[in-house]
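Milestone 3.1: sequence recovery, worked example.
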């Protein structure tokens, strides 16, 4: 089955919604105008309920099917990135400090398109909960919505999400069961020495030397501590020290990120980092203190929902079901920890990469994503048949 004809018929409307959102991006949890826009469209479509303010600025809408049954959730993220756009498009961001460089404007428009169709047809049993989430890029808005009773209030059995993927054909789908995105953690190591005159380094405990040595030592954590068949990334992304050419500072700090899929691997990396920091600092006569912040958990697709989602995707377009996991991170992971479900990518064509100032969501993908969401609901919860279960 190709695109749903009714959805294809209002593709121009979806493009309009998407470009409006692109031109008016909002960052992190402050998706106030975006949430209002989403709620207004949902009300126009005639959904059964619209609730705003879930997890600060999240929106949840409910559509009732034509017969009793379970509830399936569909999620889209709404927030933009704090960066300046460089596309030159007519619908480019009107804010110099914000840009939809990760496709969240398209994710939201696709789910709105599915909502319009499902509210019109209601050719399914049970209910569908439409989840529009803020804060994916930074604060983890999924967690805030969960803490606000997302799954208890709307009683979802499963939940699904789509994300734009540049570099593959427009409208193609890509996924896999199991881990598909990594856990994301941040860290900072503060090094304290004894500052002094740059002409008398022998009278100091030089934290710049400590930082340089520690940077090199940290590169051995994955290559010499983690099992070669396991997976982890440790990146140093910042080193800060000093303020003058003739002064050895008293302190320095490094920071970066750790990505992993396995809790035991993460624990090994953390322990080795702390040991190296302490040892290097002591060697140079200084001290080290590490702050490690646990971020998003790994995004792990459930087998049953992933198989069902891939089958639906194959009816609409091409689908890859063995996509290798990547070391990016996604707060949809919190939702998959609470309920079975699946995370899929939708192709964006030969465009700049995500988070690039020249990226733009390809509007031709909108009808594919909306059709996928709609057919997923109709297939999972068909009228007159029990819905499938199992993770």
């Amino acid at each position: 089955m190709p695109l749903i004809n009714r959805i294809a018929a209002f593709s121009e409307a979806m493009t309009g919604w998407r470009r409006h959102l692109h031109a008016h991006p909002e960052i992190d949890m402050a998706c106030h105008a975006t949430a209002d826009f989403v709620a207004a469209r949902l009300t126009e479509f005639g959904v059964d309920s619209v609730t705003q303010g879930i997890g600060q600025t999240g929106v949840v809408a409910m559509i009732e099917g034509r017969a009793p049954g379970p509830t399936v959730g569909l999620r889209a993220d709404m927030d933009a990135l704090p960066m300046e756009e460089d596309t030159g498009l007519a619908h480019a961001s009107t804010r110099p400090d914000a840009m939809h460089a990760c496709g969240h404007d398209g994710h939201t428009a696709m789910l709105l398109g599915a909502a319009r169709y499902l509210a019109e047809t209601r050719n399914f049993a049970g209910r569908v909960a439409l989840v529009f989430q803020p804060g994916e890029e930074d604060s983890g808005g999924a967690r805030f919505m969960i803490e606000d009773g997302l799954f208890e209030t709307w009683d979802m059995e499963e939940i699904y999400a789509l994300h734009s993927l540049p570099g593959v054909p427009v409208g193609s789908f890509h996924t896999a069961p199991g881990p598909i995105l990594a856990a994301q953690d941040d860290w900072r190591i503060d090094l304290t020495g004894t500052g002094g005159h740059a002409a008398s380094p022998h009278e100091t405990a030089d934290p710049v030397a400590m930082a340089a040595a520690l940077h090199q030592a940290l590169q051995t954590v994955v290559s010499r501590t983690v099992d070669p068949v396991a997976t982890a990334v440790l990146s140093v992304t910042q080193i800060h020290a000093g303020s003058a050419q003739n002064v050895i500072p008293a302190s320095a700090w490094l920071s970066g990120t750790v990505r992993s899929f396995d809790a035991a691997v993460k624990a090994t990396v953390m322990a080795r980092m702390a040991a190296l920091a302490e040892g290097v600092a002591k060697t140079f006569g200084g001290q080290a203190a590490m702050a490690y912040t646990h971020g998003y958990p790994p995004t792990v697709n459930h087998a049953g929902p992933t198989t069902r989602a891939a089958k639906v995707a194959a009816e609409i377009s091409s689908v890859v079901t063995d996509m290798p996991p990547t070391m990016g991170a996604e707060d949809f992971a919190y939702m998959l920890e609470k309920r079975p479900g699946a995370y899929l990518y939708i192709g964006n064509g030969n465009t700049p990469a995500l988070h690039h100032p020249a990226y733009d969501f390809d509007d031709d993908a909108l009808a594919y994503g909306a059709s996928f969401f709609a057919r997923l609901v109709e297939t999972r919860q068909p009228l007159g048949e029990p819905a499938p279960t199992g993770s």
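The chain has a mean pLDDT of 97. The chain has twelve helices and 16 strands.
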